[in-house]
Design brief:
The protein is an all-alpha fold. The protein has one domain (30-131). It has 6 helices and no strands. Helix 2 runs antiparallel to helix 3 (60-78), helix 2 packs parallel to helix 4 and helix 3 (60-78) packs antiparallel against helix 4 (88-111). The chain is elongated, with a radius of gyration of 29 Å.
Length: 137
């Protein structure tokens, strides 16, 4: 008989614990495609900021960092194709992002030094340094 009372008491305790607990709010789920597009836009914005910073400081390292950030953005945009929940809006966003990164990479590569420029700057280093003080660091 005692076992029956303990069993009933246990059921009452378990059921009362479930009744007093407040229902939890469901967290919004972020889809695979949305998360990858967000990170791709983040990388693209950081590439733009690094490219703008290059014009202020004239450090070539920032050009390379901008290039790599743009490549990361393209990689993340291409990875949306593997997501199970992609839609037409994701397709158009990826195409838009790819075009933006292509233009940005063209601008970056135009500002990178080529071999001829490096040889010229080494040949006339003193004169070059007097003319373009901020360019050599």
């Amino acid at each position: 008989m005692r076992r029956l009372y303990f069993f009933i008491f246990g059921l009452i305790m378990l059921s009362s614990c479930g009744l007093t607990e407040e229902p939890r709010a469901r967290l919004p789920t972020v889809s695979c495609a949305e998360a990858r597009l967000d990170s791709s836009f983040y990388f693209h914005n950081s590439a733009k900021e690094l490219f703008q910073s290059y014009y202020k400081t004239r450090k070539e390292s920032e050009l390379f960092y901008a290039w790599y950030a743009s490549e990361d953005s393209r990689y993340m945009a291409n990875s949306v194709r593997g997501c199970y929940d992609r839609r037409n809006k994701h397709y158009h966003a990826v195409n838009n992002l790819m075009r933006k990164n292509e233009i940005l990479q063209r601008l970056i590569s135009q500002n990178m030094r080529h071999d001829a420029q490096a040889q010229l700057s080494e040949l006339y280093l003193e004169e070059y340094r007097e003319i373009f003080v901020r360019d050599i660091q």
